[in-house]
């Protein structure tokens, strides 16, 4: 039996932390896993493995939040309808776009979404039916090319007046739909090979362990404090990843890339930690 490599250990630990975040918040697995994992594997290997993991993860989440489904499933139908063409279009993009360019695009799209979410930006949408289909289309493209959809989805649903259990049920329902559709699309396109399946089996135990740990952690820490800290750290990881990808494309100098990424990443982590401490302090004062 071969020993685990440093890269495999890093991927396992990242997936463990990401699964804990997902268990606590209901989303965040790919948003945390992808920035780190892209430093070790290409999108064409990573995406199929993560989609398989998320089918399992999202089905478990849907089962745990099943009691709130009757209150939200009809409202989510327009969005789910838009997912179908979006996932198919994203699968085509994945076959024709160069790996490094796709990595840079992934980071560039992900960073502002995470920053908006970490900042607590909210804008209620009154006509959900009109917005649902085009939003689902864009979400499907984003998910099938990057396996990421939590930040924009949370931005939308956080503004719609859902109770906490309804919010988690709605996210689980949409993510079951998008991950299942993407799994079928990837199978049709022949994306599943030995590297992706090997990565899936490496990360599956981390997901199985991290989910219940995340639910336990949420009982001891304020959900809002935990969410903001996670998103701040995630934004820092994405910033560093974007700098590295741009350097690989030859668009920026390596020294400049690392210096700017380190400065921005340090600022984001520091800001997130400060907000975390303030929220913890207010939580203790009110108890």
From TrEMBL:
Principal cellular location given in the protein's record: membrane
Transmembrane is among the record's keywords: yes
Topology of the protein relative to the lipid bilayer: Multi-pass membrane protein
UniProt keyword Iron-sulfur present: no
A Pfam entry, by short name: TauE
Keywords: Cell membrane, Membrane, Transmembrane, Transmembrane helix, Transport
Annotated transmembrane regions: 45-64, 76-101, 107-125, 172-192, 198-217, 229-249, 255-273
Any single Gene Ontology cellular-component annotation: plasma membrane
InterPro entries: TM_pro_TauE-like, TSUP
Subcellular location: Cell membrane
Family: Belongs to the 4-toluene sulfonate uptake permease (TSUP) (TC 2.A.102) family.
PANTHER family the UniProt entry points to: SULFITE EXPORTER TAUE_SAFE (PTHR30269:SF38), TRANSMEMBRANE PROTEIN YFCA (PTHR30269)
Protein name: Probable membrane transporter protein
Organism for this UniProt entry: Archangium gephyra
The organism's taxonomic lineage, starting at the top: Bacteria, Pseudomonadati, Myxococcota, Myxococcia, Myxococcales
